[in-house]
Amino acid sequence: MSRKRTRLSSEEEMSGKLLEMGSGEQNGSETSFTSSTNLPPTDSIQSLQTAAPFSTDPIAIAERERCHYGRIPRAAALAGTAPRRVRVYSDGIYDMFHQGHARQLQQAKTVFPNVYLIVGVCSDSLTHSRKGRTVMTEDERYEAVRHCRYVDEVVRDAPWEYDEEFLDKHKIDFVAHDDIPYTTEDCEDTYAMIKAKDMFVATERTEGVSTSDIVARIVRDYDIYVRRNLARGYSAKELNVSFLNEKKFRLQNKMDELKDKGKKVMTNIGEKRVDILTKWEEKSRELIDAFLLLFGPDGRLSSIWNESKGRLMQALSQPPSPRSSPPPSENGDSHSHSPTHRGSASPPPPKSRRYETLWEAQAGNWMYRALNVLGSRKRPYSAS
């Protein structure tokens, strides 16, 4: 346990010395800790651990009290020879905080080598009266800005125009904003006084993105976003949608769900199609081989058919008639007594052949009688 405590205490001591970022001795040893480019400054570490404080928080008040205010000349600020951190102020509405806002604040933070960035955010009442309605509330806009890593301090309810009292209160050295003149009802350029005092530093706007562009996209795709929020559980009352429009949007959501399911089914079929075709090709080859083996020219069915055909033709063919006996000779002797046929007389026909001959004769008699009967039925009756 003692070793563990010793190790922890030594690590805490080492971390504290690394965060000091200044020169110093390590418990009387010759090793000294100096600032290094590999280690971030203390304010950067603090900004990553916590959100930027408001101007009324004790941390911001202490930072402001430590500042010996006297406006730093531009040349000293650019050269990085100022005796303290340069306090740069930037303001805006910061509605629907986006990357354009973050890039503008990044430029304000890096306009000089060592900058303490103060960001003013206007309230809802002032913004609605001067510019128009916002999407986010003032508290939401305050929180969005103070969680940007470039911001060191946030001023709530920032003024629309500047005066010497405001600049002295927050000990502002420079004001950062885009160089486009910002006109009001009272003056042509709100930053005219700041520019006259050589306290203005220009930042560049990010082309292609702004709060107005984002709102225009939402208005353009209004139906899509309403349908999305209905699908996520919002009620028609919360979205200010009529009863009929709600039913229409919900029906469209159902149709989209069916389309998505159909696409998934077709995708699955497309993935399995290759396997199905491969298996079908294998099965078709087996079927073709079996078909040729059975119905081919040398197949079993052809052999069976040829054998059956031969037997059938043999059964249907008429048996040959027996040979007639030679006529008797002039002497009245038969050919059996002639010397040429002596000993070569043909044997009597077999019994089956005799039956066939009798059957044929009988069949002929039956046929003759049937024809006579049919002929007699067709004769007309006589007059008598």
UniProtKB/TrEMBL annotation:
It comes from Galleria mellonella. The gene is LOC113522957. Residues 24-45 have a biased composition (Polar residues). Transmembrane segments: none annotated. Residues 91-217 form the Cytidyltransferase-like domain. It holds the Pfam family CTP_transf_like. PANTHER family: CHOLINE-PHOSPHATE CYTIDYLYLTRANSFERASE (PTHR10739:SF13), CYTIDYLYLTRANSFERASE (PTHR10739). The keyword Methyltransferase does not apply. One of its GO terms (molecular function) is phosphatidylcholine binding. It is an enzyme of class 2 (transferase). Residues 1-45, 313-356 are annotated as: Disordered. Residues 319-329 have a biased composition (Pro residues). This is choline-phosphate cytidylyltransferase. InterPro entries: CCT (IPR041723), Cyt_trans-like (IPR004821), Pcy1-like (IPR045049), Rossmann-like_a/b/a_fold (IPR014729). Belongs to the cytidylyltransferase family. Its EC number is 2.7.7.15. Pathway: Lipid metabolism; Phospholipid metabolism; phosphatidylcholine biosynthesis; phosphatidylcholine from phosphocholine: step 1/2. Keywords: Lipid biosynthesis, Lipid metabolism, Nucleotidyltransferase, Phospholipid biosynthesis, Phospholipid metabolism, Transferase.
